[in-house]
Specification:
Blueprint (H helix, E strand, L loop, with lengths): L2 E5 L7 H14 L3 E6 L1 H4 L12 E4 L20 H10 L5 E4 L3 H12 L9 E7 L5 E5 L9 H17 L8 E4 L10 H10 L5 E5 L11 E3 L2 H28 L4 H17 L2 H4 L2 E4 L4 E4 L6 H17 L1 H16 L1
Parallel strand pairs: 1-2, 1-4, 2-3, 4-11, 6-9, 7-8, 7-9
Antiparallel strand pairs: 5-6, 5-10, 10-11
Helix pairs in contact: 1-10, 3-4, 5-6, 5-11, 7-8
């Protein structure tokens, strides 16, 4: 049975939504949750019928959002350190944390290590498309500056996630640039394009709009650009929803049409809601690491747990190792 270590104290709202999300996941999936945090705060939140299904590991120290990510390395009694150690020691198969994302990424990289052949791990997010599926976008924040070979590895890892976790047969992989032509892009993307040219599934450069039109399954970019795309998308949906509310108040005649449009944008907002997605897999690490939003509610934690279980069940890391080895041998 899959065992998932969960940082019970890391989110903005304390252990309550995390414990609740864990219980909701147990109603649907058969797995072993290990909550890491203050037992005195966790236990009262657990209904008696679930207490024999959930393990609790005592940890009093919590890395706050204001702390430096590097502090986590020294704070061995913290919830995130102990949760990652459970994975490192083979006592858990994966980890879910809504705590300090920088601390989680730092500890995961240093304590668990990168997969052989992977220079940089990457954060994945899932963008909605007009055809109803989701596009895998990476990196969205693990790396500010990336080299061409990093983008190549992101593409391979994203392809593995799309194929083996999301079930997409022969995923189409695009390289985010400022135009579809091979000549477009900066020096990094131009070189990455050449390195990816013969990679199975690579369809060439794609533009920002292609992330949402369903023309590709995976889009690779550096973390600086990817994070901007993610935050901009969230902002657009929120802003347009707000504008529609304003139009309704200002023009009673437009109420019928505005209400219909408002419903459409509510559905869009739901599609990019982190609660519906669950979290961002940190791919390229020697285990499963799911990083959830600090403001995660119970639904978000529940979905993050499902992500972790699916990641482990799909054995995606073994597929990445095989694909990276195949790529490296082909390039020699």
């Amino acid at each position: 049975m899959v065992k998932i270590a969960i940082d019970a104290m890391g989110g903005d709202f304390g252990p309550e939504p995390i414990v609740k999300g864990c219980i909701q996941a147990l109603k649907t999936k058969n797995f072993t949750p290990i909550l890491v945090g203050k037992k005195s705060e966790i236990l009262p939140l657990l209904p008696k019928r679930y207490r024999d299904k959930i393990s609790i590991i005592e940890a009093d120290d919590v890395i706050s959002m204001s702390d430096a990510a590097t502090d986590a390395v020294k704070r061995k009694e913290s919830t995130i350190y102990k949760a990652i150690n459970l994975v490192k020691n083979g006592e858990a198969d994966g980890i879910v944390s809504a705590g300090h994302s920088g601390a989680t990424m730092t500890l995961a990289t240093l304590r668990l290590g990168r997969l052989k052949g992977i220079a940089r791990p990457a954060l994945i997010t899932f963008m909605p498309t007009k055809v109803g599926n989701r596009t895998v976008l990476l990196d969205v924040g693990a790396n500010v500056d990336s080299k061409p070979e990093h983008l190549v590895q992101f593409a391979i890892m994203g392809g593995c996630y799309s194929e083996f976790v999301m079930g997409v047969k022969n995923p189409k992989i695009g390289l985010l640039a400022n135009g579809e032509e091979d000549s477009k892009g900066n020096d990094v993307t131009k070189t990455a394009h050449k390195l990816l040219k013969n990679q199975k599934g690579f369809i060439g450069n794609v533009e920002g709009g292609d992330i949402f039109n369903g023309s590709c399954d995976v889009v690779t970019c550096d973390g600086f650009v990817g994070n901007l795309v993610l935050k901009t998308t969230e902002g657009v949906a929120s802003t347009i929803s707000g504008l529609i509310k304003d139009y309704i108040r200002k023009s009673p005649i437009a109420i019928t049409g505005a209400l219909l449009m408002r419903k459409v944008f509510k559905l869009l907002k739901k599609d990019i809601d982190y609660a519906e997605i669950g979290g961002a897999p940190l791919i390229g690490i020697k285990s499963c690491v799911i990083i959830s939003h600090g403001k995660s509610n119970a639904r978000a934690i529940e979905n993050a747990i499902y992500q972790a279980i699916n990641y482990v069940d799909a054995d995606v890391n073994q597929h990445i190792l095989a694909k990276i080895q195949e790529y490296n041998q082909k390039e020699k």
